[in-house]
């Protein structure tokens, strides 16, 4: 992996963490949503991350393999190249809904109970803080890589 590969890996992590933060924001925004398009309460969403084999799919690697050139040195011949991260799915939580007694609510059932999404603001804030920290760490990795590239260019002057 060259320095630009580091940027690709960190860039994929920035994208994945941004999506995670968007899902957390959607969960917090819909914490009191009792009716969605299908008539049921909103369900908490989870982001599922997966490792991407981005190094094998990148334009550079496809060009090198099309020309019969090696992707890696001999010490890495049998190891898969490190890749980035990607969001493989956004899945709905299977937890049951919370029932609150509110007979005046338009979505109340015949007994006066309303089904609310099972969303805990503390859990969502912890998840958002995790996404923020991971985003910041990957941003720092990009800054460090930029410094390494700049130092390499200074050597060539």
TrEMBL record:
Keyword Coiled coil (UniProt): no
Keyword Transferase applies: no
Ranges for domain Flagellar basal body rod protein N-terminal: 7-34
A family per Pfam: Flg_bbr_C
Protein localization: Bacterial flagellum basal body
Occurrences of domain Flagellar basal-body/hook protein C-terminal (ranges): 111-154
Gene Ontology CC annotation, any one: bacterial-type flagellum basal body, rod
Alphabetized UniProt keyword annotations: Bacterial flagellum, Cell projection, Cilium, Flagellum
One GO term (biological process): bacterial-type flagellum-dependent swarming motility
Top-rank taxon, per record: Bacteria
InterPro entries the record matches: Flag_bb_rod_N, Flagellar_basal_body_rod_CS, Flg_bb/hook_C_dom, FlgC
Quaternary structure and interacting proteins, as annotated: The basal body constitutes a major portion of the flagellar organelle and consists of four rings (L,P,S, and M) mounted on a central rod. The rod consists of about 26 subunits of FlgG in the distal portion, and FlgB, FlgC and FlgF are thought to build up the proximal portion of the rod with about 6 subunits each.
Family according to the record: Belongs to the flagella basal body rod proteins family.
Record's protein name: Flagellar basal-body rod protein FlgC
């Amino acid at each position: 992996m060259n320095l630009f590969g580091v940027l690709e890996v960190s860039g994929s992590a920035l994208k994945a963490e941004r999506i995670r933060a968007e899902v957390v924001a959607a969960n917090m925004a819909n914490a009191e949503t009792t009716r969605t398009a299908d008539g049921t309460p909103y369900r908490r969403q989870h982001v599922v991350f997966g490792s991407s084999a981005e190094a094998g799919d990148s334009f550079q690697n496809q060009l090198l393999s099309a020309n019969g050139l090696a992707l890696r040195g001999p010490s890495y011949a049998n190891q898969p190249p490190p890749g980035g991260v990607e969001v493989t799915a956004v899945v709905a939580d299977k937890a049951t809904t919370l029932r609150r007694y509110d007979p005046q609510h338009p979505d109340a059932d015949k007994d006066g109970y309303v089904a609310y999404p099972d969303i805990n603001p503390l859990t969502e804030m912890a998840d958002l803080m995790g996404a923020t920290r991971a985003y910041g760490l990957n941003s720092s990795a990009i800054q460090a890589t930029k410094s390494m590239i700049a130092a390499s260019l200074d050597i060539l002057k």
